[in-house]
Design a protein that fits this description.
Its EC number is 2.7.13.3. Keywords: Coiled coil, Membrane, Phosphoprotein, Transmembrane, Transmembrane helix. By secondary structure, the chain is of the alpha+beta class. Helices cover about 60% and strands about 15% of the residues. Strand 6 and strand 7 form a beta hairpin.
Length: about 290
């Protein structure tokens, strides 16, 4: 009897050992498969990352080189149109001159849109670093040039366009003169487009406690719903409902680019409005460096 029990015990032990061995081998095999799968996925991920990096570099290079390929022929076209309109090649019939004038304005608008798109791409690629060409600027002179640029546009709509300078001269600032000129043109041009009567006034104020200058562009235009204010200038192609109704061809690129430029200078841009039909105020605060 003890011999039988011993044989049964031995058989059970052997049977359990076999079962344990089977599951151990199976678990080891599955672990090996999981490791191989993980290694395969890691290799694929590295390859995908390298491919993405190459594509990103190619995209960035294309965008940056496009500045030359797009701007150069447009500059030539604009130059030739100006010479023709100045009648450097002979007298033009009035009808032809009128049509060429419209063509010239359209080409200038096209160049502006291309430059805005390329600038946005540069800011996104370089995160605003190494883009600005800073120089010492007298703010009053910069603003006077902006006002002179846009006065004919305001006059066409019978709108006033004024600027209020502080009594004391403002400190000089280190700015990218060309890009900040574009920012103020965008803000005031926006006000002109969205104002049917009244006008636009620009205020400048030196904030001594912050050592910064506050620019306020106040218009008597269509206004902005309060719920839309936080999104102003946050994304390209994002525009308020009323703005779309009044200027359906606008794309909202100018405000977005203006915000990028202002932030690259260490400043901030925001808008305030009491609501529809109550006008709006766009603020820019820039540190004096």
């Amino acid at each position: 009897m003890p011999t039988v029990n011993l044989r049964i015990l031995t058989f059970l032990t052997f049977f359990l050992f076999c079962i344990f061995g089977y599951y151990l081998i199976k678990a080891t095999h599955e672990e090996e498969k999981r490791r191989e799968e993980a290694e395969r996925m890691a290799v694929q991920e590295r390859a995908l990352r390298l491919r993405t990096e190459r594509l990103t570099r190619a995209r960035d290079q294309f965008i940056l080189s496009s500045q030359h390929y797009f701007r150069t022929p447009l500059t030539s076209i604009i130059g030739f149109l100006e010479m023709v309109l100045d009648e450097s090649y002979g007298k033009l019939p009035e009808k032809v001159k009128e049509k060429l004038g419209l063509t010239s304005r359209s080409v200038l608008e096209l160049r502006k849109r291309i430059e805005e798109s390329l600038d946005i791409s540069q800011f996104q690629i370089r995160k605003g670093k190494g883009i600005l060409s800073l120089e010492e600027v007298r703010v009053e002179d910069l603003i006077k040039n902006v006002i002179e640029e846009l006065k004919p546009q305001a006059k066409e709509k019978n709108l006033y366009l004024e600027v209020s300078f502080p009594e004391n001269p403002l400190p000089k600032m280190k700015l990218d003169k060309k890009r900040m000129f574009m920012v103020f043109v965008n803000l005031i041009d926006n006000g002109i487009k969205h104002t049917l009567k009244g006008g636009i006034k620009l205020f400048l104020e030196y904030l001594k406690d912050k050592n910064s200058i506050l620019f306020s562009v106040k218009d008597t235009g269509i206004g902005i719903p309060r719920e839309e204010l936080p999104f102003i200038g946050q994304m390209p192609f994002e525009r308020g409902r009323k703005a779309k109704e009044l200027t359906p061809l606008g794309k909202g690129i100018g405000l977005y680019l203006s915000r990028l430029v202002v932030e690259a200078h260490g400043g901030k841009l925001w808008a305030e409005s009491e609501g529809i039909g109550k006008g709006s105020v766009f603020y820019i605060e820039l540190p004096v460096k």
